[in-house]
User: What shape does this take?
Amino acid sequence: MIVLAFDTSSRVVSVVLCDDDRVLARRDVEAPPAEGLLGWVDEVLADAGITRDAIELVAVGTGPGLFTGTRVGVATAKGIAFALGRPLVGVSSLVAVRRAASADRRTVDGVMIDAGRGEVYALGSEGAPFLASPEVARARLSGQLVASSSLGLDLPTAPTPDAAWVAREGHARFVATGRDEVASLEPDYVRPSDATLPKTPQRTA
Assistant: This one.
């Protein structure tokens, strides 16, 4: 199955085209995804000698991570899937990190990445991603851990989210449980956005 996958939740935008588990072409660019995500998609297609019509599945990292980057990535994936009439699968970016780390080591049970403000986004072997201080997250996660190098923790370094693992996880999920609904798939920010509307209307003078 030809899978187009990308993850835009970190400062490195990762875009790949896979045939099942085999990576046909990829781009890893340290730039905001709004500056060229569709162009990088076209580049990996050209590198692989494949047209957009050959894409059979679109997989996208849903975060948590950078708010704007994740939002751009999910919106772009939804647009491509809708325009081509192809199935779409969202994959937690932390699951992609954990799978990449496990490929290089023994099974990794938990991962932590920097969430700013002295907190981390974390994911264990079970359950959903959560937000906590590094100390609380470390206490909640058992077994072997990896962490973002920017955290300064005495743990093996976690990789940035890799779209190749988004593709593999997305393909496995699609085979097992089917597609996500394009209209309802949303980024998993974990932390509420600061740009939220007040619960009650504000009066103006």
Observations:
- Residues 94-151 form one domain.
